[in-house]
Amino acid sequence: MELIKSVGLASDHAGYELKQVVKQYLDAHGIEYKDFGCFSPKSCDYPDYAHPLANAIEAGEFKAGIALCGSGEGMSMTLNKHQGIRAALCWRTEIAEITRKHNNSNIIVIPARFIDKETTLKMLDIFFNTDFEGGRHLRRINKMPLHE
């Protein structure tokens, strides 16, 4: 992956606390970010933040994103409704690596209620430092978008 200089962030209330840890990681690595919300641990609806993140990536404002919610499933489902998004739900470092290598994922989704801070930070390191392999994987990715 070419050097990531900025990313988009989104979370719901369940991902809010871990998102603060992610922001510290980004600050420490000199990666700028735009937080699309939420902005407190007060109950909210993840699509309200997932769609603006996906729109920004599809518009080219960011090459990558980070999304967090309780299980990661709601964010993943919502983000992947967008044709230019390949959001990957990751709960192990190996998944973060293979989804970059084989799926060229552009958003890492973190299940905040089921993953610890250390694993999250390791997955971010891997996600930001793993290149897409291309080759046979590109053929498969090109088949993902719906064509009308």
Helix content: 40-55%
What distance lies between the first and last C-alpha atoms, to the nearest angstrom? 30 Å
Strand content: 15-25%
Number of helices: 6
Low-pLDDT windows of residues: none
Q: Which structural class do the helices and strands define? A: alpha/beta
Average pLDDT, all residues: 94
Order of helices and strands: EHEHEHEHEHH
- Report the count of strand segments: 5
Rg, nearest Å: 14 Å
3D structure, described in words:
The protein is α/β, with parallel strands linked by helices and 148 residues long. It has six helices and five strands, in the order βαβαβαβαβαα. It has helices at 16-28, 47-58, 73-79, 93-103, 117-129, 136-141; strands spanning 6-11, 32-35, 64-69, 87-89, 107-111. The chain has a five-stranded parallel β-sheet with strand order 2-1-3-5-4, sandwiched between helices. α2 (47-58) packs across α3 and α4 packs parallel to α5 (117-129). The termini are far apart. The relative contact order is 0.18.
Notable traits:
16% strand; 148 residues; 6 helices; five-stranded parallel β-sheet; alpha/beta
Give a quick precis of the structure.
The chain has helices spanning 16-28, 47-58, 73-79, 93-103, 117-129, 136-141, and strands spanning 6-11, 32-35, 64-69, 87-89, 107-111. The chain is α/β, with parallel strands linked by helices.
